[in-house]
Amino acid sequence: MSGAHDLGGRQGFGPIVRERDEPVFHEAWEGRTLALARAMLAGSHFNQAEFRHVKERMAPATYHGSSYYQRWLEGSITLLLEKGVITQEEFDARLDELAKGTG
Fold first, then answer.
1. Are the CB atoms for 62 and 77 separated by under 8 Å?
2. Which pTM was predicted?
3. Theoretical Cys-Cys bridge with 46: which of 27, 32, 35, 50, CB 3.0 to 4.6 Å?
4. Which residues, in sequence order, are CB contacts of 73 under 8 Å at separation 6+?
5. If you write DSSP's letter for every residue of 46-91 in order, what string do you get?
6. First CA to last CA across the chain, in angstroms?
7. Comparing 3-12, 38-47, 50-59, which segment has the lowest mean pLDDT?
8. What is the pLDDT of residue 43?
């Protein structure tokens, strides 16, 4: 069974447009997202298969509407919550701190 992530051989998505001299990261948060995922993998909080699968579980509209690193961030957050590394309350409190500029 194919999921939203399995685009091999599918038509209708248009050409792949590559930026000339494309940077590795377009914004700083993308690099931090990569670092977060790597740290969680290195710390054995989740493994490669789980990380791949969490992105495959995304709703098709979310998957297709997200950038590469948005999928990585969403997947990391989902696994950290599902595995109890952080609680929803801790996550929400941290978001609140960031929104207020106090964190």
1. no
2. 0.80
3. 50
4. 29, 33, 36
5. S-HHHHHHHHHTS-HHHHHTS-HHHHHHHHHHHHHHHTTSS-HHHH
6. 43
7. 3-12
8. 94
Q: Would you state the structure tokens that stand for residue 61, as one six-digit string?
A: 């509209």
Non-local CB neighbours of 31 within 8 Å, separated by 6+ positions: 24, 25
Query: Could you report the per-residue pLDDT of 6-19, keeping only the tens digit for each?
Result: 454 556 767 878 88
For 5-43, the DSSP string reads: T--TT---S-PPP--TT--S-SSHHHHHHHHHHHHHHHT
Q: What whole-number distance in Å separates Cα of residue 96 and Cα of residue 103?
A: 9
pLDDT of residue 93: 96
Handedness of CA 93, 27, 71, 84 (dihedral sign): negative
